[in-house]
Design brief:
By secondary structure, this protein is of the alpha+beta class. Helices cover 36% and strands 19% of the residues. It has helices spanning 6-22, 38-44, 72-77; strands at 27-32, 53-58, 64-67. A hairpin with a 5-residue loop joins strand 2 (53-58) and strand 3 (64-67).
């Protein structure tokens, strides 16, 4: 289980979506890696250990965590999506 509760994650994503709507943008792509984790960690609560990744946040719809295949089990373990 990760440190970021689902309710807080939803609030943070809503904040990003508000900026997207304000700027008339369709999506945000937030890159992060083990050296530059701040923005991605803020949105997901997950810190990659050995790969770079990104969070794709559409103005509507579900966000996606993008990364290499080696990270998938760790991302699920560190999130509330472990059973998904």
């Amino acid at each position: 289980m990760g440190y970021l509760p689902g309710s807080e994650c939803k609030l943070r994503l809503a904040s990003v979506r508000g900026i997207l709507a304000e700027k008339s943008l369709d999506l945000a792509l937030v890159y992060y890696d083990e050296f530059n984790i701040g923005n991605g960690w803020y949105l997901t609560g997950w810190c990659p250990q050995f790969e770079s990744g990104a969070v794709l946040v559409p103005r509507t719809g579900s966000p996606l965590l993008l990364g290499g295949p080696e990270s998938e089990p760790f991302a699920k373990q560190d999130s509330d999506q472990g059973d998904a």
